[in-house]
């Protein structure tokens, strides 16, 4: 990953009340990715209804490198949506807990689904696929 910078994820959560705003945010991110408006935004996943991995409510994930982090943070913070932003390391648990940054009200994750330290399968999925 060194030629592209350190990998990062953000999970943007969706409730019944925020569905329209979440869908609009996803479309906006796709547009910004395709236009190059946010360089190094590499992947925008599907909005997953229900539980996906450690995420107990609907969400979609985005993949980007550290260079895009300031633009991503600004966009999510301005949206008013809840999101979990974290680096992608070989420690899945740390990525979703001690290394994570919440925007909005944190959501309790199901940590039992995460890979053991040193075995983060998300690394192989970076910029390729979501859950």
Describe the protein:
This protein is of the alpha+beta class. It has a single domain (8-113), classed as DOPA-like domains (Alpha-Beta Plaits, 2-Layer Sandwich), CATH 3.30.70. The protein is 28% helix and 20% strand. It is built from 4 helices and 5 strands, in the order βαββαβαβα. The longest helix has 17 residues, at 19-35. It is globular and about 35 Å long.
Which features does this protein show?
alpha+beta; five-stranded antiparallel sheet; 28% helix
How far do the termini sit from each other?
Answer: 21 Å
**The CATH topology, please?**
Alpha-Beta Plaits
Average pLDDT number: 92
- Unreliable stretches (pLDDT < 50, length at least 5) are none
Give the fraction of residues assigned to helices. Answer: 25-40%
Beta-strand share of residues: 15-25%
Count of structural domains: 1
CATH architecture group name = 2-Layer Sandwich
Note the main sheet.
5 strands, antiparallel
CATH superfamily: DOPA-like domains
Helical segment tally?
A: 4
Report the CATH C-level class.
Alpha Beta
The dominant shape is: globular
Cα-based radius of gyration, to the nearest Å: 14 Å
Strand order, main sheet: write it out: 2-3-1-4-5
Question: What is the number of beta strands?
Answer: 5
- Tell me the structural class: alpha+beta
Order of helices and strands: EHEEHEHEH
């Amino acid at each position: 990953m060194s030629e592209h910078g350190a990998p990062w994820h953000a999970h943007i959560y969706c409730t019944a009340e925020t569905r329209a705003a979440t869908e609009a945010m996803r479309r906006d991110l796709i547009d910004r990715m395709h236009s190059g408006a946010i360089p190094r935004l590499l992947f925008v996943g599907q909005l997953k209804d229900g539980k996906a991995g450690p995420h107990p409510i609907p969400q979609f994930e985005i993949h980007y490198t550290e260079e895009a982090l300031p633009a991503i943070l600004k966009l999510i913070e301005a949206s008013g949506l809840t999101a979990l932003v974290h680096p992608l390391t070989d420690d899945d648990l740390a990525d979703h807990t001690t290394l994570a940054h919440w925007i909005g009200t944190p959501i309790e994750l199901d940590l039992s689904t995460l890979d053991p330290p040193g075995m983060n399968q998300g690394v192989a999925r970076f910029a390729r696929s979501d859950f």
